[in-house]
Amino acid sequence: MVYFAAEMLAISGQTLEGKRCLISGAGNVALFVAEKVLEFGGRVLTLSDSTAIIYDEQGLDPDKLAFVKDLKNVRRGRIAEYGERYPDAVYVSRDPLSDQNPVWSFPADCALPCATQNEINGNDAARLLAGGVGLVCEGANMLCTSGGGADFS
Description:
By secondary structure, this protein is of the alpha/beta class. The protein is built from five helices and six strands; from the N terminus they run αβαββααββαβ. It has a single domain, classed as NAD(P)-binding Rossmann-like Domain (Rossmann fold), CATH 3.40.50.
Protein backbone atom coordinates (compact mmCIF):
# COMPACT_ATOMS: atom_id res chain seq x y z
CA MET A 1 0.00 0.00 0.00
CA VAL A 2 2.76 2.46 0.86
CA TYR A 3 4.58 1.61 -2.36
CA PHE A 4 1.36 2.32 -4.24
CA ALA A 5 0.95 5.65 -2.39
CA ALA A 6 4.54 6.55 -3.27
CA GLU A 7 3.85 5.80 -6.93
CA MET A 8 0.69 7.89 -6.84
CA LEU A 9 2.70 10.82 -5.48
CA ALA A 10 5.50 10.27 -8.01
CA ILE A 11 3.06 10.96 -10.85
CA SER A 12 2.95 14.57 -9.69
CA GLY A 13 6.67 14.74 -8.92
CA GLN A 14 6.26 14.26 -5.16
CA THR A 15 7.51 11.76 -2.61
CA LEU A 16 6.44 10.67 0.86
CA GLU A 17 9.47 12.47 2.31
CA GLY A 18 8.17 14.89 4.94
CA LYS A 19 4.51 14.16 4.20
CA ARG A 20 2.20 14.28 7.24
CA CYS A 21 0.21 11.04 7.30
CA LEU A 22 -2.97 10.17 9.15
CA ILE A 23 -3.27 6.44 9.73
CA SER A 24 -6.33 4.81 11.23
CA GLY A 25 -6.08 1.55 13.07
CA ALA A 26 -3.39 -0.05 15.19
CA GLY A 27 -3.53 -3.62 13.92
CA ASN A 28 -1.16 -5.41 11.58
CA VAL A 29 -2.01 -3.38 8.49
CA ALA A 30 -1.79 0.00 10.25
CA LEU A 31 1.43 -0.80 12.08
CA PHE A 32 3.22 -2.11 9.00
CA VAL A 33 1.97 0.88 6.98
CA ALA A 34 3.32 3.18 9.70
CA GLU A 35 6.68 1.39 9.55
CA LYS A 36 6.89 1.81 5.78
CA VAL A 37 5.82 5.46 5.92
CA LEU A 38 8.72 6.09 8.31
CA GLU A 39 11.11 4.22 5.98
CA PHE A 40 9.98 6.49 3.13
CA GLY A 41 10.62 9.59 5.26
CA GLY A 42 6.99 10.43 6.01
CA ARG A 43 5.60 11.51 9.38
CA VAL A 44 2.99 9.29 11.04
CA LEU A 45 0.68 11.59 13.02
CA THR A 46 -2.18 9.30 14.10
CA LEU A 47 -3.12 5.78 15.05
CA SER A 48 -6.42 4.57 16.46
CA ASP A 49 -8.36 1.70 17.91
CA SER A 50 -12.05 1.18 18.61
CA THR A 51 -11.92 3.34 21.76
CA ALA A 52 -9.73 6.31 20.83
CA ILE A 53 -7.26 7.98 18.53
CA ILE A 54 -3.90 9.50 19.29
CA TYR A 55 -2.48 12.46 17.40
CA ASP A 56 1.25 13.07 17.81
CA GLU A 57 2.16 16.34 16.11
CA GLN A 58 5.86 15.50 16.37
CA GLY A 59 5.18 12.23 14.58
CA LEU A 60 5.87 8.69 15.64
CA ASP A 61 9.51 7.69 15.47
CA PRO A 62 10.79 4.09 15.43
CA ASP A 63 10.86 3.96 19.26
CA LYS A 64 7.28 5.21 19.58
CA LEU A 65 6.17 2.74 16.90
CA ALA A 66 7.94 -0.09 18.76
CA PHE A 67 6.00 0.92 21.88
CA VAL A 68 2.70 0.69 19.98
CA LYS A 69 3.64 -2.66 18.44
CA ASP A 70 4.35 -4.06 21.90
CA LEU A 71 1.21 -2.43 23.30
CA LYS A 72 -1.11 -3.85 20.64
CA ASN A 73 0.56 -7.13 19.60
CA VAL A 74 2.02 -8.37 22.86
CA ARG A 75 0.17 -6.74 25.75
CA ARG A 76 -3.12 -6.33 23.83
CA GLY A 77 -3.56 -2.87 25.36
CA ARG A 78 -5.58 0.13 24.24
CA ILE A 79 -4.16 3.07 22.29
CA ALA A 80 -4.92 5.30 25.31
CA GLU A 81 -1.68 4.00 26.84
CA TYR A 82 0.23 5.89 24.14
CA GLY A 83 -1.19 9.13 25.55
CA GLU A 84 -0.03 8.13 29.02
CA ARG A 85 3.48 7.29 27.81
CA TYR A 86 3.78 10.32 25.50
CA PRO A 87 1.81 13.13 27.19
CA ASP A 88 2.48 15.62 24.37
CA ALA A 89 0.23 13.54 22.13
CA VAL A 90 -3.44 14.45 21.83
CA TYR A 91 -5.81 11.72 22.95
CA VAL A 92 -9.38 11.75 21.63
CA SER A 93 -12.01 9.27 22.83
CA ARG A 94 -14.20 7.86 20.09
CA ASP A 95 -17.91 8.51 20.32
CA PRO A 96 -19.63 5.40 18.96
CA LEU A 97 -22.70 7.47 18.09
CA SER A 98 -20.81 10.10 16.09
CA ASP A 99 -21.18 10.21 12.33
CA GLN A 100 -17.56 11.21 11.83
CA ASN A 101 -14.20 9.65 12.53
CA PRO A 102 -11.97 11.99 14.61
CA VAL A 103 -8.79 10.57 13.08
CA TRP A 104 -9.57 12.53 9.89
CA SER A 105 -9.91 15.90 11.66
CA PHE A 106 -6.21 16.85 11.74
CA PRO A 107 -4.27 18.74 9.06
CA ALA A 108 -2.19 16.38 6.93
CA ASP A 109 -0.99 15.56 3.42
CA CYS A 110 -2.03 11.90 3.24
CA ALA A 111 -4.81 9.77 4.73
CA LEU A 112 -4.15 6.06 5.02
CA PRO A 113 -7.24 4.26 6.41
CA CYS A 114 -6.21 0.84 7.72
CA ALA A 115 -8.79 -0.09 10.32
CA THR A 116 -12.20 -1.24 9.12
CA GLN A 117 -14.91 -0.62 6.56
CA ASN A 118 -16.93 2.58 6.29
CA GLU A 119 -14.18 4.69 7.85
CA ILE A 120 -14.67 7.73 5.65
CA ASN A 121 -18.10 9.21 5.07
CA GLY A 122 -18.97 12.40 3.22
CA ASN A 123 -18.36 14.60 6.27
CA ASP A 124 -14.98 12.96 6.88
CA ALA A 125 -14.02 13.44 3.23
CA ALA A 126 -14.88 17.14 3.45
CA ARG A 127 -12.71 17.47 6.58
CA LEU A 128 -9.82 15.67 4.87
CA LEU A 129 -9.98 18.12 1.97
CA ALA A 130 -10.22 21.11 4.32
CA GLY A 131 -7.22 19.77 6.26
CA GLY A 132 -5.04 19.69 3.15
CA VAL A 133 -5.11 15.96 2.39
CA GLY A 134 -4.30 15.38 -1.26
CA LEU A 135 -3.87 11.61 -1.19
CA VAL A 136 -6.05 8.85 0.22
CA CYS A 137 -4.78 5.30 -0.13
CA GLU A 138 -6.65 2.47 1.53
CA GLY A 139 -5.42 -0.48 3.51
CA ALA A 140 -8.92 -1.17 4.83
CA ASN A 141 -11.64 -2.93 2.90
CA MET A 142 -14.54 -0.77 1.69
CA LEU A 143 -13.16 2.29 3.43
CA CYS A 144 -15.79 4.77 2.24
CA THR A 145 -19.48 4.79 2.93
CA SER A 146 -21.85 5.12 0.02
CA GLY A 147 -23.60 8.42 -0.38
CA GLY A 148 -22.54 11.99 -0.39
CA GLY A 149 -21.93 14.81 1.94
CA ALA A 150 -18.82 16.26 0.38
CA ASP A 151 -18.61 18.32 -2.78
CA PHE A 152 -15.45 17.27 -4.63
CA SER A 153 -15.93 19.57 -7.61
